[in-house]
Amino acid sequence: DAKTTQPTSMDCAEGRAANLPCNHSTISGNEYVYWYRQIHSQGPQYIIHGLKNNETNEMASLIITEDRKSSTLILPHATLRDTAVYYCIVRRNFGNEKLTFGTGTRLTIIP
Amino acid sequence: DVKVTQSSRYLVKRTGEKVFLECVQDMDHENMFWYRQDPGLGLRLIYFSYDVKMKEKGDIPEGYSVSREKKERFSLILESASTNQTSMYLCASTNQDRGHNEQFFGPGTRLTVL
Fold this sequence. Notes:
The complex is a heterodimer of chains A (111) and B (114).
Chain A: E1 9-13, E2 18-23, E3 31-38, E4 45-50, E5 55-56, E6 61-64, E7 70-75, E8 84-92, E9 105-110
Parallel strand pairs in A: 1-9
Antiparallel strand pairs in A: 2-7, 3-4, 3-8, 5-6, 6-7, 8-9
Chain B: E1 4-6, E2 10-13, E3 19-25, E4 31-38, E5 42-49, E6 56-57, E7 64-70, E8 73-78, E9 87-94, E10 104-105, E11 109-113
Parallel strand pairs in B: 2-11
Antiparallel strand pairs in B: 1-3, 3-8, 4-5, 4-9, 5-6, 7-8, 9-10, 9-11
């Protein structure tokens, strides 16, 4: 799997958009970008994934650059419940493919 | 709503005990995984299963075994618990669909071995 680089921590004001960057400069053509988050003492939660087009769901938006070497996860209106560690992962889209989490970005939403 | 459940949130065992961690999913998923998560080491795969009675070793299978007798249930067994197996254990499941195989996780079991 390609490696990813994320900032160690970020703060965001409640109600504002949280933009979490991720670099994945060695991503292969058949690898997807996945985002998970982990709230303290809970299991990881899937957020969104994409290949090359921008994606949006009820939780977030994913913007992938045209060269696919970086992406940004956007939480449009951050709430205190969005405080968590966010993991950016690149992986092939096979069901039996394991997940490998790095250290992620610790996002703190400030009231 | 998708559900992966684990038998215990917190467990305390003694060195040498046999420990069973149970995981159940209600999504009819083919694939199930056991990970452990430790500070500074991220998520590490212990074992996974892609079908009933099938299992594959992950990155750190030593000291563990697994059982998958039914599609919805995947058990992790510590044959003789040791203190270095104190960790957060996470179960996950996913289907084989190429387009949508995000892994769904259980809440985790925090195991302490004394």
